[in-house]
Design brief:
Oligomer: single chain
Shape: elongated
Radius of gyration: 48 Å
CATH superfamily of the largest domain: Adenoviral Proteinase, Chain A
Strand content: 5-15%
Helix content: 25-40%
Number of helices: 15
GO molecular function: cysteine-type peptidase activity
Keywords: Hydrolase, Protease
Number of domains: 2
InterPro entries: Papain-like_cys_pep_sf, Peptidase_C48_C
Distance between the termini: 114 Å
Organism: Artemisia annua
Strand order of the largest sheet: 5-6-7-8-9
Number of strands: 11
Protein name: Ulp1 protease family, C-terminal catalytic domain-containing protein
Structural class: alpha+beta
CATH topology of the largest domain: Adenoviral Proteinase, Chain
């Protein structure tokens, strides 16, 4: 049988199988000739049929070759038939590229009887190690660098302390006039820093002759903590605490519960200022008890515990004069310092509180203790020393005028601080007030004191 007849007998195999068959036919003679020579005398060259066992044997060999070719895979011989990546399955940014699996054909030659040879291909699949990989895109989140103030802003000549005797800026005067006119809703938010809100009625308590609300001191402490970024390298690092560090409920609770509450408050403050007290020199605690306020200062650099109070008193026994509060503060602060392994912990545990004696202490003034606390907070430098520019006059000479001036300047500084998220609204309101007729502004000024006092007396919250 000739090779052309063999090709015609297996039409379903296709070109690929025939090509493979042609390529794998050995070039050497194994004694098996698929194309017999025609016999003489046969003009049409048709082979004579064989008889008996020879016909059966040749048919069996033909069927074996035919069966092999029919089972032969058609995608492993031609390059265009090789398995490739489906172009419809595009590589996106969220899936990893994988090298396609390759089918390897292992030829096997059978020539047991020495009369023939044919190819048997076995299909085997395995993963091929890729030359390179394409990984999905990953958004790398860069850590933002902590922006520190420039050296110019850290100069010791930058004025951070409110200066007495200096003329107020026009905008500052407009802001004070607008707030003290008391012509808008008392619950309007005029100061916002993070989650802290300051209502109009709280800021109105800075009006001269009115007791300062504790909320003003809390807003002032936020402003001072923010300004610590601008301190010079030679200045003492200070942390200002709010007025709720010690409450009546904490004093009545058991010590463990009160200590946990105190440490929680301290951690919340340090999150907004320093990460810890390791590099802090002064920790300042404003205390409000009834209608009187005073300041506690704890020096961590040179362990000292000072009580700064504007009120004169012949009583110098701290426990009799101030009760448990100073000792509660120092005890719980030492507990927190111990958790940080602070070097000053043991020294502070044996330090006794000392009442400072300033020249501007008062006998009769009972409404300005909050203003004194705010002044002491911004000017105290530790070791019993105050900023030399901040010295106040005595109660007998020009004392009241200085305190009233500080009220106005503290109001303007808090509301116009960069920390205040609603300062633009405050500015717009101030400009609107300034555009009022002069007669209307004079009327509002005359009625301001009584109106603000009535608001504070009847407010819905304390």
């Amino acid at each position: 049988m000739c090779i052309e007849e063999l090709k015609k007998s297996v039409p379903s195999v296709g070109i690929a199988a025939v090509r493979m068959f042609d390529l794998d036919v050995p070039s050497f003679d194994l004694g098996f000739n698929l194309t017999p020579e025609p016999k003489k005398g046969n003009e049409d060259n048709t082979p004579e049929p064989k008889k008996g066992n020879e016909d059966n044997k040749e048919d069996e060999e033909f069927e074996e070759v035919k069966s092999t070719l029919l089972d032969f895979p058609t995608d492993c011989t031609c390059p265009e038939k090789m398995t490739t990546l489906d172009p419809e399955k595009s590589i996106d940014g969220n899936s990893e590229f994988k090298t396609p699996k390759v089918h390897i054909m292992k030829p096997s030659t059978s020539n047991a009887d020495g009369k023939g040879s044919h190819v048997i291909c076995m299909k085997e699949t395995y993963d091929v190690e890729p030359v390179s990989r394409i990984y999905p895109r990953q958004e790398v989140e860069r850590v933002r660098r902590c922006i520190k103030p420039s050296g110019v802003l850290l100069s010791p000549f930058i004025e951070r302390v409110v200066k007495l005797g200096k003329e107020m800026e026009p905008l500052e005067k407009k802001v004070c006039g607008s707030i003290f006119s008391a012509r808008f809703n008392e619950m309007d938010v005029v100061f916002r820093a993070g989650s802290e809100d300051g209502h109009r009625i709280v800021m109105e308590s800075l009006f001269p002759g009115i007791e300062v609300d504790r909320g003003v001191i809390d807003m002032w402490n936020l402003v001072l903590n923010d300004e610590e970024r601008l301190r010079s390298k030679d200045s003492m690092a200070r942390v200002f605490c709010h007025t709720q560090m010690v409450t009546d409920s904490m004093l009545s609770d058991d010590m463990d519960s009160a200590t946990k509450h105190f440490i929680s408050n301290m951690l919340a403050i340090l999150e907004q200022t320093f990460s810890s007290l390791e590099h802090v020199d002064l920790v300042l605690f404003p205390i409000v008890e009834g209608n009187h306020s005073y300041l506690l200062s704890i020096n961590l650099r040179t362990p000292q515990f000072h009580i700064i109070d504007n009120r004169k008193s012949d009583e110098m026994d701290v426990k009799k004069r101030y009760g448990r509060v100073p000792f509660f503060i120092i005890s719980n602060l030492c507990s927190y310092l111990a958790s940080e392994d602070h070097l000053s912990t043991m020294k502070l545990m044996v330090v006794d509180p000392v009442i400072l004696k300033m020249g501007w202490r008062t006998n009769m003034n009972i409404v300005d203790s909050g203003v004194f606390v705010m002044r002491h907070m911004e000017t105290y430098q530790g070791n019993g020393m105050f900023d030399y520019k901040s010295v106040l006059k005595t109660e007998a000479v020009g004392h009241k005028e200085q305190l009233d001036e500080l009220r106005l300047k503290y109001l303007a500084k808090i509301l116009l601080s960069d920390l205040n998220l609603v300062r633009n609204d405050v500015k717009a309101e101030a400009e609107a007030y300034h555009s009022l007729p002069a007669t209307e502004k004079r009327r509002l000024k005359r009625e301001a004191l009584n109106k603000i006092q009535g608001r504070l007396a009847n407010r819905r919250w304390k």
